[in-house]
Every structure is written in structure tokens, then in C-alpha cells.
């Protein structure tokens, strides 16, 4: 049996994934953000200014936002599995809140990482991005051959390998909020 795949069929966008009150709570929280950076496979930090300009905050298992966010990620995963029945998940990494202020961006890269920020070792199968808002200009998400302006409270799911390079274009007005997790 021959199967004819189009790479874009593995990039899925789902709406109404994040409850409005949860999105608002996160965006109005007093979170202690850190400047984001890139690191190589040896966990050596690179000079990141040319590669990323965003603030980040990690949600670990004990954080009060972990369980409500896990429900959002699980909802996205289940929709992706319904669309791609051979896909499965054994582990979800910790969640990272990404805050891009005006001028913020992330250069194109692929998520074929072995580990990230001291987390679970292994190569992720897929990346899930939850978008909290859409009241900003610029900041479009590019992945493989697609350019997406995600709606507030939506999710984008795609494979984490070299065929799906992705990034966030420069935010020209407002603040762009997203949350990422990787699926093992």
C-alpha cells in the first residue's frame, strides 16, 4: 500500500483549547520571568541575542498552573492522535511560558533536542504550542511551509524533527504569549 504524505498534514491547529479564564490568569500573573537562551547538546549556552528575544518561565510539576495546563496539553494531544492514529505519547516535558514583548522573536530552528533546560532525556516526537492571546501585531508562527497567526486559546502541534523548522517572527506591537511542551 502506497501512502502519499504532504508534510503540512502533520501541522495541526486546534481552537478553543485553553479556557479563557486560564489564559487571562496566566497573562495577569506576577511571574518571575527569565531571559530565554539557546543551548547546544552539551548544555553549553550560546550567545543567544541573535537567536531569541523572549522571556520564559518554566512550569514544573509542583506549580499551581501545572494541572490546568496539563488538561490543555492533553486535549491537544488527543485531537492530534485522532487525526494521526499511529502517534503516541509516553511523556510530556515540563511547560515553558514564552512572553514576547515588542521586538521579541525566535529564529528558525528545529526541536530535535536531546534535552532542554535539565529536563527528561530523549528526543521529542512532537511539539505542542498553546497560544494565550492574539491581540498583538507581527509575531506570526512559521513552521515548515506554513505561516500561522494563531488565534487566542488555540494550539499548534507538529513533529519535532529537522523537517519542521519553525520560529516566531518579530512582534511589532503588543505582547505575544505562548506555552510550549515537548512530547516524548
Question: Can you offer a commentary on this structure?
Answer:
There is one protein chain. This protein has 184 residues and is an alpha+beta fold. The protein has 2 helices and 14 strands; from the N terminus they run βαβββαββββββββββ. Strands 1-11-7-14-5-4-2 form a 7-stranded antiparallel beta sheet, with helices on one face. Strands 3-6-12-9-10 form a 5-stranded antiparallel beta sheet, with no helix packed on it. Strands 8-13 form a two-stranded antiparallel sheet. β9 and β10 form a beta hairpin. The longest helix is centred in the middle third of the chain and has 18 residues, at 66-83. It is globular. The two termini are 28 Å apart. The mean pLDDT is 91.
Helix content: 10-25%
Number of helices: 2
State the separation between the terminal residues, measured CA to CA.
Answer: 28 Å
Largest sheet: 7 strands, antiparallel
In terms of per-residue confidence, which ranges show pLDDT below 50 for 5 or more consecutive residues? none
User: What class, by secondary structure content?
Assistant: alpha+beta
Radius of gyration: 16 Å
Mean pLDDT: 91
Strand order of the largest sheet: 1-11-7-14-5-4-2
Got a strand count? 14
State the order of secondary-structure elements, H for helix, E for strand: EHEEEHEEEEEEEEEE
Shape, per Cα inertia axes: globular
Strand fraction: 25-35%
Amino acid at each position: 500500500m502506497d501512502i502519499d504524505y504532504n508534510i503540512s498534514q502533520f501541522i495541526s491547529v486546534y481552537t478553543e483549547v485553553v479556557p479563557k479564564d486560564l489564559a487571562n490568569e496566566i497573562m495577569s500573573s506576577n511571574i518571575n520571568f527569565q531571559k530565554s537562551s539557546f543551548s547546544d547538546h552539551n548544555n553549553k549556552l550560546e550567545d543567544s541575542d541573535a537567536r531569541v528575544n523572549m522571556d520564559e518561565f518554566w512550569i514544573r510539576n509542583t506549580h499551581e498552573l501545572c494541572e490546568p495546563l496539563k488538561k490543555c496539553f492533553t486535549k491537544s494531544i488527543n485531537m492530534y492522535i485522532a487525526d494521526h492514529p499511529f502517534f503516541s505519547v509516553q511523556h510530556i516535558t515540563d511547560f515553558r511560558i514564552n512572553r514576547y514583548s515588542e521586538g521579541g522573536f525566535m529564529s528558525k530552528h528545529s526541536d530535535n533536542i536531546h534535552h532542554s533546560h535539565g529536563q527528561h532525556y530523549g528526543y521529542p516526537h512532537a511539539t505542542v504550542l498553546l497560544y494565550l492571546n492574539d491581540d498583538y501585531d507581527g509575531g506570526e508562527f512559521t513552521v515548515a511551509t506554513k505561516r500561522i497567526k494563531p488565534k487566542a486559546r488555540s494550539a499548534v502541534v507538529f513533529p519535532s524533527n529537522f523537517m519542521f523548522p519553525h520560529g516566531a517572527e518579530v512582534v511589532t506591537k503588543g505582547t505575544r504569549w505562548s506555552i510550549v511542551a515537548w512530547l516524548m
